[in-house]
Amino acid sequence: MNYQNNPFPYHVGVQSLHELANKHSRVCIMNIRGTESSLVTPVSHAYSGGNVVAGVQYGESGGTFETPVGDIPVFGSISDVIRSGIHFDTGVVYLPPSAVSHAVSEMCARNVHLKRIVIVTEKVSARDSRLIRYGCQNAKVDVIGANTLGIANCWDQVRIGGALGGDSPSESLRKGSVAIYSNSGNFSTTISEYLKTAGFGTSTILSSGKDVYIHFALAEFLYCAENDPRTKAIVVYVEPGGYYEKQALDWIEEGRFKLTKPIIACVTGRWKKNLTRSCGHAGAMAGTGDDAEAKEVWFDDFFGVPVFDPARPQVSKRGVRIRTIQDVPDAVTACMKLLGEQPDFASTGDLSLKPWFVNDQDLSLPQQLRMHPVKAISPYGEEIEKFNQLVGARIMREPMRNRSGASAIDPADFTISLHGRKLLDLIEHPFGAVSIYSVLKTMPDAGQMAIINPLLNWFVARGSVHVSTVTRGRANDCTPNASIATEVLLAGNNRLFRELRAMGSWLIDQFIHEVGTDLCVDDGLIEEKLSTAQPFPGTLPEDYSEQWAEYFGSLLRTHSQVTILTRFAEAYSEKMRTAGETVDPLKLLLSAILLGLAWKPLTERRISRETALDLGTYLGLNGIIVGVSPVNHEKNYFWQKLHSLSDPAILTTDFSSTCFQVLFNRIPEDSELFTFNALLNLTVTNGPGTLSAKGAKESVSARNHIATAYAGFLTNTGLAHGGNGFESVSYLLTIFSEADPYRTAPADLDPILKGLAAKATQDFVVRKRKARIEGISERIPCINHPVFRDKPENHDPREVHIRKLLKEKSIVNPFLEFYHHLVKELHAEGLTSNVYCVNVDAVIACIALDLLWKQLNNGEMSEKEAQEIVFIMFLYGRMAGVSAEIADHLSRGQDLDCRTPADELVFLA
Amino acid sequence: MQLTGLKYGRRLLDLVEFPVSQVLTEDASHDEINELIASHGGKCIVKPVFLGGVGKKGKAGLVRIVSNVFDAMVAKRDLFFAIHHQGNREVQACGVTFEGYVASDIEIYVSISESSEYRMPVLLLTTKGGVDVEDVPAEDKRTIVFNPVTGVKSFHINDALRELKCPPQYISSLVQHLPKLWQVYDNYGLTTLELNPIRMGKVKGRYVPLACDIKASFDQDNPAWKRLGYPEEIFSTTITQFESEINVLRTHQGQSDVTEVNPKGTILPFIFGGGANSAATEILGDRAIISSDFGGNPPYEKIKAIADITFRHWLPQANVVLLIGGRANNTNIFTTFKAIFDSLREHIRLNPNVFVVAGRGGPMVVEGMVYGRDVLDGLRVPYRFFGHDSSMMSVLQHAIEIDTFLEPRPEEVAPRQIKAA
Predict the structure, then answer these.
(1) Residue A498: left if φ>0, alpha if ψ -120 to 50, beta else—which one?
(2) pLDDT tier at A27 (50, 70, 90 boundaries)?
């Protein structure tokens, strides 16, 4: 090959790009076991046909470095490498910055055959760079870098230095006619990807680095490209700082060396003009005349044509400047066309926007911004397909001690949220809906509620079967949580739970990949599935299964809630019945209904597959808690009716009303149902630190069944937690012992309440004085929250919200109004430094007392029963919140992740 | 990292006993100022003190020559908190210096910097200083290229000054003192050192070059500047609170380069790679809150810490969180995406209405995107993930369009309908 005369006023040891890196290159890597080298070198070595002949690792000698194509010997120094008879012409440095100049000195001093050094290390100081320059010029060694990703020769399939082409270089680096010179390592590979869309491959790619010193700069690259017969055009990507480009273009203009091949140049970084320190590339700092705009002018003047416009492509034989690397394919095509050159191969793909994953959630975007997922190029499309086969959310497992992915507490106002929604915003939703929301993170709509209420009530009816267990416990003076927990524990992982789960899983596998998010009935698909579906293992129907399946099927049709899942379940049961096979039609239909409810959050990956399948278990356990909880089931007419299921119509009762009637043995008035429903929703959770939920989570972390975890919740409640509502009820009963607020005309009520507050204050003065003498503390329950206490007049925002809500419904709770008079009276009497807030706990007590008052006063209910009812109300609300915590922990937590670390354990002597 | 002015700059020159004009700081007493004026021909110069690199103060009318204490105090009052505009940057002074006026018939300009043209350090010298060196005709300045190991020598200076026809009475002292600047430059990690002007004063009857102003740039990658013991705050105008928190994580592997672009921006970009940093920031313009280069295959812990700081500072105001880079060569996409989305999940309460746009390729890209998808689905945050087969520039444009749509538009009743469930 006849090259031009080397035109440089300094040493440049190569004449052609091909010489920079080729199949004859022999490489030694400094710090071969370093973090980055450990990842990159095996890939480079394999891609390059095993061109790394040695590695150096200070302090280690005699070992080997494993790669897919054979081991690389590792030495303790360059001298050892040379002494062992290994020859190399190229050194690669992966050492930390402070060691780089020393390593370069070592290689130059010890290896007389060294031709070039590639410095991958980032943040080498300018001082070390100038010493490297000086030393290597004297040793006649070319330097690439620092902060380079090295060189790739796509014709010889060789890469030296860093990770050009990533972990699959043969995919990115396709042989072709375009050379790439880039200040950015990442753009080196990205540009080669872009070129493929126009059918162009690459000859040699050089990541120059963009430190203050670029030792192998544009002039050298262009000179070598001109001498490289493989190269027909050159893509250049540069940033502000330095006169390397001007020097190269000036030298061509001056005729110092010739360049007949077009340059497609991209300059970015106008915004860096005013930087006073580097961001990104260390050398991309503009001085007075070397900012991005100046560089654009250098290139434009050289090319003689304006910046490239893809709509009206105009280029010169010298090339063209492009605004962004996006224009590389069009500009290279235009330049090649001018030269009469053809693409290297058929174009592959294009650069249009192709989202691999899209979800606008419920955001309504204008038409032009809406997108649909596009299948990714191979092999990524296939990889994505594999992941898409996985159903539901996949959440990284992590320790869950004192943590929750379900509930949260806002540190600003202490409001609690569940699955991102404030509890205060949930309280008007039907409690049945909130029970579903707790597990599925999605609030059911009104149409779904027409099915959900019967479903929940059916579970209550089924759960009421063993009420005798609780009766026995009550006789033994068990607290309600204990006796209910016993029945819950015994539920275990029973056949109903197991079969609902298995059937749900079977249905998911049949339909998830066929229907996506749309559960509309598709008769063709149902027919196809009926004939091709792997049969579900036979299940024995229970008594009346067919009749109840028919009832629920009819309900679905009446309320237009039929889905492809429920239609298929019915058709499959019919097919099995006709064939004389056994399958429980009710359980199959119920599992289809449950799965239908879970379908949206499941396909949106908001819940895990496991959570979707466990929905029946949660509802079943909730059903047991409600079903066995009446304080006097023998006299409870509603419960008897539900228990016997003598009239299916009872199943359509609103679930809140069911809970109310099971507890109070009467039909609620509208206002009562509203406050009762609000109270249940209000007690769903108390945030991640909820004590009752902790019991459940610790049980989950020990890998128990959900029923056992529920028992963990129940046994973590007690007279001090859940039962303490009665403390304030008891206090209010004392206060109102001689004044029935419900027998007072509304207009007269307020002065009476004020009077009661004044009296209560005086009583408190006496009790407090007495308590002080006795050395004990005396307090009034449910006032003065530890957080809301610093203002002259304090309010618990949660209480404020609910009181406002009640007032909007024209519901006056006399006990709550009394509390507000009381806190003002206490301050007026000088007993408190400011006006205490009324806590949200007071709301719960006041609502409970409001509901109990009449039955308690007319003797229909004993105080003990009232106490139990207050406790059980708390358990009802909390069971929903606990199901959320258990589902969250099961999807996200690890075994024993609630364990306390040993160093936090304390022995109290 | 830059500094200007003699308040702090004289420490550099004192290290090599390079003469400096007498400087008093803002706490100087009236007597001290009087004495300064009296000993400098009845004049002193009052200059505002700016932290970081701030030039062209004279052109902005921020330098006063006064002849009595009263005028000096007036100048002090006017300049103490002076505001100076450099491009779109606005900087505020935080003090003044009183510098002795040196009567001189010539003003010398001298600088040492790294030359991309010669690929060596060079010393630029002119006897027509006191102005922007770019405005000095080529024939009136000389570039001295010297051996970077042995440094600039007296004969280099002598030859240049003779060529520049420097008055002979000054040559000897300049030849004696100017080579000292190399010691400062080479030993303390400088990338630029500029004295402009140097005025020729007389000490004990001999001419002495007195530095009357100084600019210096330090190499962030050379820890030698730390030996100077400068207080951190002198570089503080160039580093914001956010940047300083991120800088704590800075290592030789990079991965944590950030610059605050527009604290009122609405796109929060996590940019990977130096090239992407340059190109993406340009396209995003003022919408970008920060510019960053988090490439270089950062480990999980590091990118998680970066994301934590970034979200804490900027998520509340962001319409769009953008993850952008080309096809990574080395950076593990799963690791970086996992760290960022884990952090986003922890900070989402600061702004649950954010939109995520990502454009990336590289090792484990599908795993990274699937992880992000799952987290965002769980948070109900809308998103788009583009692979490397989409143009990075188009992804950026798309992020801008999303940002434009999400910008609050009071005239519209409900531009955003988010999260029904």
Answers:
(1) alpha
(2) very high
B128 burial class (0-12, 13-18, 19+ CB within 10 angstroms)? middle
What's the gap between Cα B21 and its chain centre?
A: 27
DSSP letter assigned to residue A717: -
Give A863-876 pLDDT, tens digit per residue.
888 889 989 999 99
Most distant pair of Cα atoms in chain A: their distance: 116
A670-683 confidence digits (pLDDT tens): 999 999 999 999 88
Burial class (CB in 10 A: 0-12, 13-18, 19+), A547: exposed
For residues B133 and B144, give the distance between their C-alpha atoms in angstroms, rounded to a whole number. 15
Q: Say how far residue A894 (Cα) sits from the centre of its chain.
A: 17
How far is the alpha carbon of B194 from chain A, nearest alpha carbon, in Å? 13
Question: How far is the C-alpha of B364 from the C-alpha of B386, rounded, in Å?
Answer: 14
**Interface touch A324/B279, C-beta < 8 Å:** yes
Tokens of A688: 């991640």
Interface residue B43 vs chain A (CB under 8 A): no
Chain A residue with minimum CA distance to B120 = A130
B chain contacts of residue A606, beta-carbon cutoff 8 Å: 377-378, 380
Q: Is residue B109 within 8 Å of B195, Cβ to Cβ?
A: yes
The CA radius of gyration of chain A, in Å to the nearest whole number, is: 39
**Binary contact (A242, B384; C-beta < 8 A):** no
Name A370's Cβ contacts closer than 8 Å, sequence gap at least 6: A360
CB contact under 8 A, A186 and B259: no
Per-residue pLDDT at B412: 44
**Which pLDDT value is given to residue B416?**
41
Inter-residue contact A648 to A450 (CB < 8 Å): no
Residues in contact with A420: Cβ distance below 8 Å, sequence separation at least 6, in sequence order: A408, B352, B379, B380, B419
In this structure, are strands A64-65 and A72-75 parallel, antiparallel, or unpaired? antiparallel
Q: 3-state class of A100 per DSSP?
A: helix
pLDDT in tens, B96-114: 999 988 888 899 999 999 9
Query: What is the total residue count of chain A?
Result: 909
3-state SS of chain B is: CEEECHHHHHHHHHCCCCCECCEEECCCCHHHHHHHHHHCCCCEEEEECCCCCCCCCCCCCCCEEECCHHHHHHHHHHHCCCEEEECCEEEECCCEEEEECCCCCCEEEEEEEEECCCCEEEEEEECECCCCHHHCCHHHEEEEECCCCCCCCHHHHHHHHHHCCCCHHHHHHHHHHCCHHHHHHHHCCEEEEEEEEEEEEEECCEEEEEECCEEEEECCCCHHHHHHCCCHHHHHHHCCHHHHHHHCCCECCECCEEEECCCCCCEEEEEECHHHHHHHHHHHHHHECEEEECCCCCCHHHHHHHHHHHHHHHHHHCCEEEEEEEECCCCCHHHHHHHHHHHHHHHHHHCCCCEEEEEEECCCHHHHHHHHHHHHHHHCCCEEEECCCCCHHHHHHHHHHHHHHHCCCCCCCCCCCCCCC
Distance spanning both ends of chain A, measured CA to CA: 90
| Average pLDDT, rounded, for chain A | 92
B257 touches chain A (CB under 8 A): yes
